[in-house]
Design brief:
- This protein folds into 3 domains: 9-108, Rossmann fold (3-Layer(aba) Sandwich); 137-196, ATP-grasp fold, A domain (Dna Ligase, domain 1, 2-Layer Sandwich), CATH 3.30.1490.20; 202-430, ATP-grasp fold, B domain (D-amino Acid Aminotransferase, Chain A, domain 1).
- 30% of the residues lie in helices and 26% in strands.
- It is built from 13 helices and 22 strands.
- Strands 6-14-13-10-11-12-15-20-18 form a 9-stranded mixed sheet, with helices on both faces.
- The protein is globular and about 55 Å long.
- It starts with 8 loop residues before the first strand and ends with a strand.
């Protein structure tokens, strides 16, 4: 461990409902939070919750939240000791991490070398295989279009075209060679893998925390299988499709995997679990993952606090036997589907809602892709779903198009209550 350094004030380099959640998480860890805001977010209600709020100017056509130097300047101007990158925007940026380190601020995220290998799917897959995790049948990394037909024929359509670097392009389910060619072209210089597609699968993410010295623990899994127009619509922790034996297998497998490579900080290790209950390694996502709050609720942890402790040079302070599941948590993300002015935005239980919008505000999907995240914790999965449904049944969002009605419909679907949430990946469209 490095020498202990004091961290008292943290700049949150993310916006929207994510920024709101992290401002609260930083405060819950006993630290002062610094929120950043552009002109578009100057009236966000959560800015009043932060200890400090710093304006980041829009000096050009680019997104100010993607301006590494501007964010670091805001951190220095506010007297912050550390920067939390959030889990969108620049959260996986080696350039941003280097810029933060270069001015002597603590970075509440993975080390730069951990960012490099986890985002490179060739390296991540090789290391996962060495750690004993199972990988779906796949081609080597391809760059030439001429190599596609052979591998598509070998696996049979549909196949998944998965870019060689995470974030370079979308992974695509290809039902024909023309679609596969377009997906490979979209991957550009990084190339792509041709991967056998499962007929259906649960998408499960295991949260792990490593101390950088070869030790790591897992905090269970959450399920990301049900999608909406702006990403995952419903998250559940723990997954209803993972029994105790499988939970132990993927949890310890994920922890041993990152420990073997001395990973530092928080990450999520993603698996696809098919009808045969075999967990296939998909990706490792460095940094604080979406859905982290559900694990804090279920396991009684403080993941942001753990990130602060590690960055400060302290011991993690958790052993695997300390991590005990208590109840179930679920979260619904309500997406905006068109721009307009909110005439009504009401939830009876605002403590369960992370949002930055309010009645009378003009919103658009560019700045407000997610209108609200509604999260609950209860002794059982059934009770959590009942509570979540009651909150959404009583919610009103008028004046703009959202997927609130679809969220309510989802929570009335019998298959959900029975735990049948696997995603059918053979249907035409994108693959997570």
């Amino acid at each position: 461990m490095s020498d202990v350094r004091p961290i008292l004030r943290v700049l949150v380099a993310d916006r929207g409902e994510v920024g709101a959640r992290l401002v609260r998480a930083v405060a819950a860890a006993g630290l002062e939070s610094v929120a950043v805001f552009s002109d578009a977010d100057s009236d966000a209600a959560y800015l009043d919750e932060a200890a400090f709020a710093v304006h980041i100017p829009s000096t050009g056509p680019g997104d100010p939240y993607l301006d590494a130097e501007g964010l670091v300047t805001a951190a220095l101007d506010s007297g912050a000791d550390a920067v939390h990158p959030g889990f969108r925007g620049l959260a996986r940026s080696e350039v941003f991490a280097r810029t933060v380190h270069s001015v002597g601020l603590a970075w509440l995220g993975p080390r730069i070398d951990d960012l490099a290998w986890t985002l490179d799917r060739s390296r991540a897959r090789a290391r996962a295989r060495d750690a004993g995790l199972e990988l779906l049948p796949s081609s080597p990394l391809l760059h030439a279009e001429a190599d596609l037909p052979n591998w598509c024929d070998r696996f049979g359509f549909p196949v998944v075209i998965r870019p060689g670097v995470r974030g370079a392009a979308r992974s695509v389910v290809a039902h024909d060679l023309a679609t596969a060619r377009r997906a490979l072209a979209a991957a550009g210089m990084v190339g792509a893998f041709v991967e056998r597609a499962l007929p259906e699968a649960r998408h499960v993410a295991v949260i792990v925390v490593g101390d950088g010295a070869g030790n790591a623990i897992h905090l269970g899994e959450h399920e990301d299988s049900i999608m909406g127009p702006a990403g995952v619509r419903l998250r559940e922790c723990p997954s209803s499709g993972v029994d105790a034996e499988l939970r132990e297998k993927i949890g310890m497998g994920a922890a041993d995997f990152v420990a073997a490579w001395r990973f530092f900080g928080a990450a999520s290790v993603h698996f696809l679990i098919g009808p045969d209950n075999v967990p296939w390694f998909l990706d490792v996502d460095p940094g604080l993952p979406e859905g982290f709050g559900l694990h804090d609720l279920v396991y009684g942890t403080d993941l942001v606090g753990a990130q602060v402790a590690l960055a400060a040079g302290e011991e993690l302070g958790w052993d695997q036997e300390d991590i005990r599941c208590k109840g179930a948590a679920a979260e619904v993300s309500i997406a905006l589907k068109g721009r307009g002015r909110l005439k009504s935005f009401h939830f009876a239980n605002r403590d369960a809602v992370d949002a930055i919008v309010s009645e009378g505000q003009r919103v658009d999907p560019v700045h407000h892709a997610i209108l609200a995240r509604v999260h609950v914790h209860a002794p059982t999965r059934h009770a959590a779903l009942v509570h979540l449904r009651a909150i959404l049944d009583g919610a009103t969002i008028d004046g703009v198009q959202s997927d609130l009605a679809e969220c309510v419909e989802m929570l009335a679907d019998r298959s959900l209550w029975e735990g049948r949430t696997a995603r059918r990946v053979v249907q035409r469209g994108k693959h997570g």
